[in-house]
Amino acid sequence: MTSTAAVPTYQADIYTDEALLEPYEHYRALRDLGPAVWLEAHGAFAVARYADARAVLANTEDFHSANGIALNEPANSAILGCTLASDGELHAHLRQVVAHRLTPRSLRPMRETVTARADELVAGLVERGSFDAVADLARALPLSIVPDFIGWPQEGREHLLRWAGANFDSFGPMNARAERALPQCGEMAGFGAEIVRTGNVLPGSLGASVLESRDRGDITTEQTMMLMLDYLAPSLDTTISAVGSAIWLFGRFPEQWDLVRRDPGLIPNAVNEVVRYESPIRAFGRLAVHDTEIDGVPVPAGSRVLVVYAAANRDERKFPDPDVFDVTRADAVQQLGFGYGEHGCAGQALARMETESLLAALARSVTRFELGEPERALNNLIRALGSLPVTVHTGA
Ligand code: HEM
Q1: Atom 14 of ligand 1 has which residue's CA nearest to it?
Q2: 9-393 CATH pick, 1.20.1600.10, 1.10.630.10, 3.90.1300.10, 3.30.300.30
Q3: Which of 1, 142, 162, 305 has its CA 20 to 30 A from that of 265?
């Protein structure tokens, strides 16, 4: 489709290395241009204002996830029919097969394990004094918790981080990052299919219950393969991003760390504020299935619509002083970093548990994070640090 005079347009490619390193000025420009802005470089509308982003996420009649999540056709075809990329009854059915295992109540028995692992990990790192907050802290906990929870076999785990990163890269426009990623997504899908064929999952795990659903005839074999990856693919890089960003932010804003140390009851809100301020997933797409409009901007059927959570979370129309990191912010809980509505993150209770446990363990002993030079890991969707040298201080 072509843009019309009534539709604000934006020329810049928001997926270049430079734009991924410094995205926030692009987000501001998009918000200021209008409720929906035609991205010339990507052939899609961007929705960057909070109220409009939330309205699009809530409007599952007009905006579909099937064929809509990614900005390119090969990726949309590859994931068609998974929980993330399905709509209506099919989506509700797939979600009901698994999501009940991830509610705060079902996860309660895991809290002890997660807390114990977080405590042990942090004690070792505090003892060392200096470490890499990404490799040694942010990656270590999810990798020690999530694959077991999903029931992924030991063999193949060494590929998980590469595959999970590729999965997110593949959802961008068809740039070099997405091109490199697609074959790796194929490898992950092949491995998932093999697990379903052989039934090689850990007993009692989420994966085992997905196989039981297949055996009962609740889901097809193809849906079983999708569900095996549905929960693993988004569960690592996202949480790793949140934990890495948290350390980076508390290092830069030590007075915020003092608030958390003085009142650890603030930790759940601090996690919301980290996810608001440095949204781990920048955006997911939707497909407009009817002629519609976004706050007056006409959106023809067949258009791609990119909901930019990371821009909505910095919208001054919603959050006062949005560029200030403030763990006491009363409305941080309204951030859209975990999505909103029917497709809102199914794994957020686990992600919150992991992040909160690490921050709680750190708050008991660390008084200051002294940051070295951070290095960004560039990904089409994930806002993350590749490494963050840090020295922790424990004295007064
Ligand atoms: C800080 C960590 C995380 C963030 C920021 C995050 C973010 C998101 C977002 C923005 C969505 C919405 C997708 C949409 O609107 O189309 C989503 C969906 C989803 N997330 Fe997460 N996520 C996180 C951790 C996890 C974890 C740990 C798991 C699994 C254990 C997980 C599993 C899922 C699944 C299965 C969906 C699809 C839900 C659906 O389509 O119904 N996520 N996540």
Answers
A1: 343
A2: 1.10.630.10
A3: 142
